[in-house]
Amino acid sequence: DDGYRLWLKYDLVQDNGLRKDYQKAAGFIAGSGNSPILQTAATELQQGLQGLLGKNVPVVTGAEKKKGGILFSVDATANVSGQPLGKDGYHIAAQNGNLVITGKTDAGVLYGVFALLRQLQTRQSIKNLELTSTPRIQYRLLNHWDNPNGTVERGYAGSSIWKWYELPERLDPRYQDYARANASIGINGVVINNVNASARYLTPEYIEKVAALAGVMRPYGIRVYMSVLWAAPKVIGGLSTSDPLDPKVKQWWTDRTNEIYKAIPDFGGFLVKANSEGEPGPQDYGRDHADGANMLADALGQHDGLVMWRAFVYKANSNGDRFKEAYAEFKPLDGRFKPKTLVQVKNGPIDFQSREPFHPLFGAMPRTPLVLEVQLTQEYLGFATHMVYLAPMFKETLDGDTYANGKGSTVAKVVDGSVDNHSISGIAGVANIGSDRNWTGHPMGQANWYAFGRLAWDHTLSSQAIAEEWTRMSLTNDAPAVRTIADVMVKSRDIYVRYTTPLGLHHIMGQSIHYGPEPWLASSARPDWTSVYYHKADAAGLGFDRTAKGSNALSLYKPEAQQLWNDPKTCPPDYLLWFHHVGWNQELSTGRTLWNELCTRYYTGVDSVTWMQQQWAAVKPQIDPELHADVTGRLQTQHKEALWWRDACVLYFQTHAKQPIPAPFAPPTRTLDDIKRLVMIYQLR
Ligand code: BDP
């Protein structure tokens, strides 16, 4: 198994009894209507059943009086127990001897088909089956950080899957497989290029290429979007400015937009990174983010498209705490954004660290729909060599309570629009997909793509349930093995945090490459690109004081949310050093001093990787050999690098704490200089 099929593995159901039950219900497929999406639904169902049941299930035009088949029904007024079915939702139930998949839209039927296949793939009974589900978030997008030259910013799974030089004439079959995978988990939009955008995509030559991709995505209910370069009117438009209030600039964007819609009538819209990390933006002309976003919204005009404007900004002199930057710039703009303009906010205030408190903008911009951006590509989480199942991390953000509108105003509810009654809602995952045969480099990285889609659809699903479902579909249906693997997955993120950045440490990774440890990093092009800026280790202790005595970033949260973190005695240890500078000998709620707890976490974190290796070894008989060996090798690297992190961090922090490694742990056998050499090797060009 080379992993190419992802979770869409339709191998024969071996249990004869179960297979017969399934077969009985699958006598024929009666599609209704002829739209491309319904045709996709019929083909997908037929292919899936062919594999799972080992028989060809005919697709017929109408059921007439026949029984024992699967029917599609598109019904704009569909009700389920008196409740109208949500847009793109589905309802699956037995009716007059057939199984009927009802959607309000064609896409709803397609999602229902994949839900039914999932039942079979995970070996659930379909007797008396009744399933209803509606996406809680409307725009469920992948963001590709792919460049026109085929590289992927922060991509660890090969090069880009988009072959720009072959498009539009040649369509790599992979595009369709990619679309299937996305549709099967409810993803309905794809931003095809890097937020550090090239102007190329806005030229007629590239619009034609993007249109070809859109043609592949369309029958799967997926729309394409573009990241745009703010300076494009200057770079390719021959204008002397890209000031959003300049009439020529406005006209230029309007013309470009019209041209795009002519080629791609269902084009999704624009994603913008502006005045961030050196990218151009409206502030270059004394305008603000809202001026820029609104100009693009005007350019979109009557077209059915969105502007997603990123809030990932931090000025060079960020008042001593980068944590507060995006809030300072965006909070005052709340209410200024035009309809169909959304502000896209990373899960946490710094930058995709392995654990961050939720971003203080969630709950602070009630008049603006906010898109939650999470990162599937493991830039700060061990690239494609560390097994880190990210659903628990996404859930931690989604479940964070902003108290914006009283208790229970979770980030999830801010994002799905229910807290502030927004009619549009979105979520974005920075893709971990590349040209590697298995798509994600690490075979277990597929689970992060899968989990993102499932949570984007329904953020109330549990990490555990998604892990089990994915494992059954991708690896094995053997119940004890499923339990073992899902258990490792669910614990893997906490384990990663323990051996890299325990107790709320953050941003202490290798400079620029963002791989491996470099807590001693003290000088860089900007202070907030160093490590010492964030951990603030000194003779007294460790951690960033963000209380009123320090940067006061805590004050950006609602008082009830502050409560959780503002007292070092009650602050959960996992967030402690995010908000407090704690003395080395301070006793923590765990009963150990800070120094001892820190060492304990680094050491037990490494031991837990050994445990992961053992668990993985135990399921060997149930897993495809090629796949098993692949993960085994990566786990070895992970263990080696967990030791690297541990030794680097305990030895470095020891230079401040000036205390021995506590028993029962044995001090590292290498020196800090040995480790610094290692870090240097990884950073050589
Ligand atoms: C940072 C990445 C950088 C991205 C940036 C972003 O290191 O490559 O361009 O995020 O999100 O974490 O714009």
Automatic annotation (TrEMBL):
It comes from the Bacteria. SUPFAM superfamilies: (Trans)glycosidases, beta-N-acetylhexosaminidase-like domain. Its EC number is 3.2.1.131. InterPro entries: A-glucoronidase_C_sf, GH, Glyco_hydro_67_aGlcAse, Glyco_hydro_67_aGlcAse_N, Glyco_hydro_67_C, Glyco_hydro_67_cat, Hex-like_dom2. Keywords: Carbohydrate metabolism, Glycosidase, Hydrolase, Polysaccharide degradation, Signal, Xylan degradation. It catalyses: Hydrolysis of (1->2)-alpha-D-(4-O-methyl)glucuronosyl links in the main chain of hardwood xylans. Transmembrane segments: none annotated. Residues 440-663 form the Glycosyl hydrolase family 67 C-terminal domain. Residues 120-439 form the Glycosyl hydrolase family 67 catalytic domain. Pfam families: Glyco_hydro_67C, Glyco_hydro_67M, Glyco_hydro_67N. It is an enzyme of class 3 (hydrolase). Residues 6-116 form the Alpha glucuronidase N-terminal domain. Belongs to the glycosyl hydrolase 67 family. Homodimer. This is Xylan alpha-1,2-glucuronidase. It comes from Hymenobacter cellulosivorans. The lineage of its organism: Bacteria, Pseudomonadati, Bacteroidota, Cytophagia, Cytophagales.
